[in-house]
Design goal:
Elements: H1 11-25, H2 33-48, E1 54-73, E2 77-79, E3 82-83, E4 90-98, E5 116-120, H3 126-135, E6 140-144, E7 163-166, H4 168-178, E8 184-203, E9 212-217, H5 227-247, E10 253-258, H6 266-273, H7 277-282, E11 285-290, E12 299-302, H8 304-313, E13 322-323, H9 334-339, E14 344-348, H10 367-381
Parallel strand pairs: 4-5, 5-6, 6-7, 9-10, 9-11, 11-14, 12-13
Antiparallel strand pairs: 1-2, 1-8, 3-7, 4-8, 8-10, 12-14
């Protein structure tokens, strides 16, 4: 760990950045005004710590949608719905039919031709639920949450029929209506792709040479304020920057806040793609901070040698991280560095029940974990 930097770390300072990003700015979808405001905030903080940050803008393509879900009978009700990602645009009107969790055997044997299937979240992938509904003849699918509140789900590929998600409360409301008799609903999704601009925020050491990179993405999903995912990582990034500046230990360390991670690691991909061959070869390692503010266990993923090195030294901090593989379908900005031949490590705590939801709020982020994450980041930077 650089010098005596650990003694300078403040989890409360890092937490202050989480509050600023989530409560003063809020949800920060890629290419939005809020994401740009967050970039300005990060740049202002880095400037205050003595750095000379700059923006690296890039174009992104993202989806916009208008989703509607209305009960037409036995009474008129408008419900809040969200299109499952990769659902096609379209609309459907038909009688609602409850189909359990969406297994083939949950649908009536006579099929549900022309009807709208209502299924519960859980056990099966969303794509399987929707495919089973389409095979049974449904014209659309509504997936209700298996825990309180709304959620946003992802299909593995574009489905054959429109599919939306709703809250557990609205799902129970629809089931209650079905218990009394037939229910007719109208569902519509109007989705399209538009282009916009995102940006990375970069701070280089005085000589401009990056030998190590500490990074965290600062965009969030639209569904919530993104406190743990990933204002927590940004708070630790900025606290790491402050500690390195005070301790004079930042030689060779570049700090990067990545934009548009939620669209597919776009910011880190652009950062890596813009490095010259000499700049890539000069990089000894990259530290990625993503979802570091809640959960029960520190985990490390990425390049085996770097993971083993940090894991072996973490006991000196009183920490016991676990080398782990990321769950299927999840990755992080470190992957783009590894793909370019740069050793990289992800420091994370992914066991977050509020992941990608409206409840991912600052109140659930723990300052002590941000302090530990900063210490781990400094440890990963080496002597």
């Amino acid at each position: 760990m650089p010098g005596g930097s650990a003694s300078l770390v403040s989890g409360d300072r890092a937490y202050g950045h989480v509050v600023a990003l989530t409560q003063d700015i809020g949800s920060r979808p890629a290419a939005s005004d809020a994401e740009a405001a967050a970039a300005d905030y990060i740049a202002d903080q880095l400037t205050y710590y003595g750095y000379q940050p700059y923006f690296q803008p890039f174009e992104v393509e993202y989806s916009v949608e208008q989703t509607g879900l209305d009960v037409l009978s036995p009474e008129a009700i408008t419900l809040e719905a969200r299109a499952l990602r990769s659902s096609p645009s379209g609309e459907a009107t038909g009688q609602l039919v409850a189909a359990g969790i969406g297994r083939p055997e949950d649908f009536p044997t006579e099929g549900v031709t022309g009807q709208v299937a209502l299924v519960e979240r859980g056990e099966l992938d969303f794509s399987d639920k929707v495919a089973n509904a389409a095979a049974a003849g449904a014209t659309a699918v509504i997936v209700y949450n298996n825990e309180a509140g709304p959620f946003r789900g992802d299909l593995q590929e574009e489905s054959a029929i429109p599919a939306v998600s709703i809250s557990q409360e609205d799902g129970q409301r629809l089931l209650g209506l079905l218990a009394l008799g037939p229910v007719t609903v109208h569902l519509s999704i109007d989705a399209g792709l538009v282009q916009g601009t995102s940006q990375n925020v970069i701070a280089r050491p005085p000589d401009g040479r990056c030998e190590e990179v500490v990074g965290a993405h600062y965009d969030s999903v639209e569904a919530g304020p993104g406190a743990n995912d990933n204002a927590s990582g940004v708070g630790v990034l900025l606290e790491t920057a402050r500690v390195l500046a005070i301790g004079g230990d930042g030689e060779g360390v570049c700090l990067v806040a990545f934009g548009a991670e939620e669209l597919g690691l776009v910011g880190s991909q652009r950062f890596v793609a813009n490095l010259s061959l000499d700049e890539r070869q000069a990089l000894r390692g990259m530290v990625n901070l993503d979802m570091v503010g809640v959960g029960d266990q520190w985990q490390l993923a990425g390049s085996e040698d770097l993971v083993e090195e940090v894991d072996g030294q973490a006991a000196g901090l009183g920490l016991d991280p676990v080398p782990a593989e990321l769950p299927a379908g999840l990755t992080g900005d470190h992957a783009n560095f590894i793909g370019a031949g740069v050793p990289a490590i992800l420091i994370y705590r992914f066991d977050d029940p509020r992941y990608h939801s409206a409840e991912d709020k600052a109140q659930f982020v723990e300052p002590r974990l941000l302090e530990q994450a900063t210490e781990l980041a400094l440890l990963a930077l080496g002597p």
